[in-house]
């Protein structure tokens, strides 16, 4: 069957030849096509605008045609998942966290995502207390004891893989379940340390101006 090269919105493989299935519609110079990914076998759909060259009838397409150059994408479904970034993180923490979010959806990049979530935690905790030393779990408990994190978050840290170990020396990558737990935990810590304080500060009533 003919193919159209695009990013798969499910496995996030770039520049992959998505297979075009029967059931296309053509109207004027637009084409609606049903696609599937040869890597993950998940379906998608696209609304394409004819640019040049190829006829408007899919019956004219040969089985091995790559029709990418004859169309531009007007719309594509579904949209790839976007990163979820807690508000008001310091710039360098946000940069690291974004790398974790970009690696999270990609099968095979679990170690990369996990490493970046842990690094975001490490750098974020240093922003709150630069002198604090030790493993992540111990530092999180110290912040909870100081009232900067909740007791529930400190208890949660005991159940998140690698927070108390040197994860860089682990031979086995985290499972999807472990990575999701680490991601959820990291997001909650970031929101508690940076997002909520900024929100509270923004909503505090401003001091009344002194009367003249």
Description of the structure:
With 212 residues, the chain is α+β, with helices and mostly antiparallel strands. The chain has five helices and five strands; from the N terminus they run E-E-E-E-E-H-H-H-H-H. Strands 1-2-3-4-5 form a five-stranded antiparallel beta sheet, with no helix packed on it. A hairpin with a 6-residue loop joins strand 3 (30-36) and strand 4 (43-50). The chain is elongated, with a radius of gyration of 24 Å. The mean pLDDT is 86.
Quick rundown:
The protein is an alpha+beta fold and 212 residues long. It folds into two domains: 3-77, no CATH class; 91-202, Up-down Bundle (Four Helix Bundle (Hemerythrin (Met), subunit A)). It has helices at 91-103, 110-128, 136-145, 151-157, 176-203; strands spanning 3-6, 16-27, 30-36, 43-50, 71-77.
């Amino acid at each position: 069957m003919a193919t159209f090269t695009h990013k798969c919105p499910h496995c996030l493989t770039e520049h992959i030849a998505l297979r075009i299935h029967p059931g296309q519609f053509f109207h004027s110079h637009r084409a609606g096509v049903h696609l599937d990914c040869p890597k993950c076998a998940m379906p998608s759909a696209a609304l394409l605008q004819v640019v040049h060259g190829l006829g408007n009838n899919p019956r004219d397409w040969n089985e091995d045609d790559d029709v990418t150059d004859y169309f531009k994408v007007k719309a594509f479904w579904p949209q790839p998942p976007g990163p979820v970034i807690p508000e008001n993180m310091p710039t360098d923490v946000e940069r690291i966290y974004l790398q974790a979010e970009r690696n999270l959806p990609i099968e095979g990049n679990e170690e990369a995502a996990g490493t970046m979530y842990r690094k975001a935690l490490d750098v974020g905790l240093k922003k709150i207390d630069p002198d604090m030393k030790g493993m992540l779990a111990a530092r999180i408990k110290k912040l909870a004891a100081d009232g900067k994190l909740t007791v529930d978050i400190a208890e949660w840290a005991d159940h998140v893989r690698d927070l108390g170990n040197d994860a860089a020396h682990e031979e086995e990558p985290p499972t999807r379940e472990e990575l999701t737990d680490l991601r959820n935990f990291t997001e909650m810590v970031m929101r508690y340390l940076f997002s909520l304080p900024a929100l509270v500060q923004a909503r505090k009533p401003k001091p009344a101006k002194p009367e003249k």
